[in-house]
Amino acid sequence: MKTLKKGSKNADVKFLQQSLAKLGYVISVDGIFGNDTERTVIRFQNDNDLSPDGVVGSNTWAVLTDLTSVRPAPVFGIDVSHHNGAINWNNINQSQVNFVYCKATQGRWFRDPMLHSNMNELKRLNFIRGVYHFFTFKDVTAAEQVNNLLGTGIDFSQPGTLPPVLDVEWQQSNSLNQYIKDNQALCAQKVQAWLAGIEAATGRKPLIYTNRFFWQDYMGNPPGFDSYLLWVASYRNDEPRLPEGWNDYAIWQFTESASVQGIPGNVDKNVFNGSVADLRKLALLG
């Protein structure tokens, strides 16, 4: 391969970008070696003990080729809500989007108005799919929030359906976030009660979606949750930073500003920590 550097524009640049994306780096695949590609190349070089000069010469090509030849293609997914608007799922490339999580509910009453439209289309097109509940901590019980999700009628025993997810993160106001800080033990008990209630009702063990800093700074790193699979939000190009208590993750949300053909605006993008066969098994297809 030719030596590539900032300003290069050819098919080799596109192949370089595709190879870096295959390794999990967030990069635009446009065939243009601009600032974004240079920064990503430097990250790759730093990650692999290469001279971080941003130039793709023989040494960088050799390491890149070696890594991409032995590492399986990543299993990518997205998560959406009514904020993404009406989506024409026929336009989504299933070779690039292996699974989709949809927002279902929040708190005691809220149900996402796009939930059933999205889930019906995903089922029709045989996407692997799942739903999540955004947890509210104050002035609502865990049982009320369990009932909210169950009231949507989602059948979690249906093949192709991923386990339910509890979204544990920052709330909509500083006062609500401060409430969590001031009542950490109670909030952890509520989270545990929701997880147990959903598992008892559906027969599926939920995942927990959270962020290292929220789990640490607001929840206080509560123990006893490490048996739940983790969906971690960590917007980095290298490995995600995990909350205390977990040694691994099931899903990594690595960006909130991805571009997906068929969906206007930015989209949350994720990578599954396993093979397509592993994902299918989690979705009751294995």
TrEMBL record:
It comes from the Bacteria. Coiled coil: none annotated. Keywords: Glycosidase, Hydrolase. Residues 10-64 form the Peptidoglycan binding-like domain. GO terms for biological process: carbohydrate catabolic process; cell wall macromolecule catabolic process; peptidoglycan catabolic process. Belongs to the glycosyl hydrolase 25 family. This is Peptidoglycan-binding protein. One of its GO terms (molecular function) is lysozyme activity. The keyword Hydrolase applies. InterPro entries: GH, Glyco_hydro_25, Glyco_hydro_fam25_subgr, Peptidoglycan-bd-like, PGBD-like_sf, PGBDSf. Pfam families: Glyco_hydro_25, PG_binding_1.
